[in-house]
Amino acid sequence: MNSVEIIEYLREEATEKYKSNIVKMGIPERYCIGVSTATLRNLAKQLDKSNQLAFELWHTNYHEARLLAVLLFERKSLEFCEIDNLMEDVISWDLCDHLCKNLIIKLPNYNEYISEWITSNHIYKKRAAFTLIASAAIHDKRIKQDTVTLYLKLIHEHSNYEHEHIKKAASWALREVGKVDFNFNEEALLLAHELLESGNKAQVWIAKDAIKELETVIKVEGRKRLISSKSKMGMEAYNESNTAQRKNVASAAGCSCAK
């Protein structure tokens, strides 16, 4: 399929429901087709990777075509400036995060984008920097202390931006760093409390949002990362732990009575 045929196919699959949802995210209606992400992912599996096709789809300006393009790029052959130009075109948080999580974080030099974009005044470049920090904290199983120290420094210095989509990404980054292990959790909480005490309005919001989760994390057997005790898995693990403790106490009491 070429780009024209793909757009025709997407129009055939479109529904007003999905189009309405996309428009609610702030995407101009003229750039919306109305197709689910699941449809795009299924289509991507049927197509070969191709930068030419991906760029053709991207330049149609259709939101869904750009989401699909991200899945078709041959990432190893993309230049830094090409990815920078892609992010320059982004006007929504979902495409920003989609580009980060499905393409940029898989590049060996993703930290270069963090360093470049964290100082940007472009809303979605700055959001992308925080999204990449969060993604790195989640997926880098060998993340090092000096990397975490740098990430926390960047969050500290560049989280004073009032835009909602940046505040939420900064909080996400701080929370994910704090869920790597208990040592990093302590460092993330220290930063959160520092922002709470001396940060601007945006940083105080970020701190409160992060502290709510970081102060409730627990270690669950079989998982390397920490999780919130308020999450479904966290509550299940907490209940199982309490049940086991009660059984142990009852067993010990029984043994004591027998003696």
What does it look like?
- By secondary structure, this protein is mainly alpha-helical.
- It has 2 domains: 1-73, no CATH class; 81-228, Serine Threonine Protein Phosphatase 5, Tetratricopeptide repeat, CATH 1.25.40.
- Helices cover 69% and strands 2% of the residues.
- It is globular and about 80 Å long.
- InterPro entries: ARM-type_fold, DNA_alkylation.
- Pfam families: DNA_alkylation.
- This is DNA alkylation repair protein.
List descriptors.
259 residues; mainly alpha; Serine Threonine Protein Phosphatase 5, Tetratricopeptide repeat; two-stranded antiparallel ribbon; 2 strands; 69% helix; ARM-type_fold; DNA_alkylation; DNA alkylation repair protein
Helices, strands, pairings?
Elements: H1 3-13, H2 16-24, H3 37-46, H4 51-58, H5 63-72, H6 80-89, H7 93-102, H8 110-117, H9 123-139, H10 145-158, H11 164-177, H12 182-198, H13 201-214, E1 217-218, E2 227-228, H14 232-258
Antiparallel strand pairs: 1-2
Strand line-up of the largest beta sheet: 1-2
Outline: globular
Q: What is the average of the pLDDT values?
A: 93
Question: Major sheet, described briefly?
Answer: 2 strands, antiparallel
CATH class of the largest domain: Mainly Alpha
Count helical runs.
14
Number of domains: 2
Report the helical percentage: 55-70%
- Percent strand equals under 5%
Tally of DSSP β-strands: 2
Q: Structural class of the helices, strands and pairings?
A: mainly alpha
Distance between the termini: 80 Å
CATH architecture grouping of the largest domain = Alpha Horseshoe
SSE pattern: HHHHHHHHHHHHHEEH
Uncertain residue segments: none
CATH topology annotation of the largest domain: Serine Threonine Protein Phosphatase 5, Tetratricopeptide repeat
Integer-rounded radius of gyration: 22 Å
Pfam families: DNA_alkylation
Organism: Bariatricus massiliensis
Protein name: DNA alkylation repair protein
InterPro entries: ARM-type_fold (IPR016024), DNA_alkylation (IPR014825)
